[in-house]
Amino acid sequence: MKVVLRRQSKKMSLMDITKIFSMLQPREDEEGTRESEELNQVVSQDDYQTLERLLSQDRYKRVINSRSGWGVPSTPLRLAASKGHLRSLEVLLAHGAEVDSLDVKAQTPLFTAVSNGHLECVKALLEAGANPSGSIYNNSSPLLTAARDGDLGILQQLLHHGAEANVHGRVPEWAANSAACSGPLYLAAVYGHLECFRMLLLYGADPNYNCTEEKMIARIKEPKTLLEICLRHGCRREFIKLLLDFGANVYLPKVAVEKMPPSSEGLELLLQARAHPKSLMSQSRLAVRRLLKQAGHAQALGELDIPPVLVSYLRHQL
């Protein structure tokens, strides 16, 4: 799935923007039908019982995926997701609503639920098979949004269902810049969401650049490591410590020591890490986690036939 998404992403960068825009516009047969308006009305009111009754009739079921309405024309499922109307959302899914339908912004219902902080709707959509990465035609992604907003519950759900921890904004390679490589780990750091930061690292986020596309990084004149970003933004020492614990390369950051505040705890931790090599236990933990990540099983620690205390250590719980 991840390989397919990456291939699709490359194709998308070559598509004509006019073609994408026309594809996302509601068709003439989607606009203004009485049945569509009624569905939107009962969904807006979370009248799930009436919704169930309407969708038992073919004329309503035929328009279950129609995009209509004022403002941002969208499907009934997108409307339910945006308002957090879980019961209506579940009725729509049970009657065959397209789980990854797109609105005119190329946003999926999942993206809308994440943006509005509706955890239960996020869970229901993911269980119904929603793509945790959102749409390839949208520049952002659900995970970037959750990391920026600091919503730990939603972030964990997305990661658990396969969202890529190193995702970044979808832009062509020629448009690469530092902002384009700003992944969820970067956002969690600059917005001060420590637990989200920890969760992303546990799910395999890269502690150096939070971007694993070497071509993208190579096009940036002076790419900044996460250690540099955290020091520059004055992040708490806990952020620096987590990056060091998860194996950040302490020699990559270009830090002008003389320009840093003398009382910078983060800088002190970095300099200590440069002066003192990691313990054998820490290096062993990093090696095990790296091997599991390469095998695509970053979260399979609980399945290892080892003592629970070692599992806790590998999960950075000790």
UniProtKB/TrEMBL annotation:
InterPro entries: Ankyrin-SOCS_box_domain, Ankyrin_rpt, Ankyrin_rpt-contain_sf, SOCS_box. Keywords: ANK repeat, Repeat, Ubl conjugation pathway. Pathway: Protein modification; protein ubiquitination. Residues 277-317 form the SOCS box domain. This is Ankyrin repeat and SOCS box protein 12. Interacts with CUL5 and RNF7. ANK repeats lie at residues 72-104, 105-131, 138-170, 184-212. GO terms for biological process: positive regulation of protein catabolic process; protein ubiquitination. Belongs to the ankyrin SOCS box (ASB) family. GO terms for molecular function: ubiquitin protein ligase activity. Signal peptide: none annotated. It comes from the Eukaryota. The gene is ASB12. One of its GO terms (cellular component) is ubiquitin ligase complex. Transmembrane segments: none annotated. Probable substrate-recognition component of a SCF-like ECS (Elongin-Cullin-SOCS-box protein) E3 ubiquitin-protein ligase complex which mediates the ubiquitination and subsequent proteasomal degradation of target proteins. It holds the Pfam family Ank.
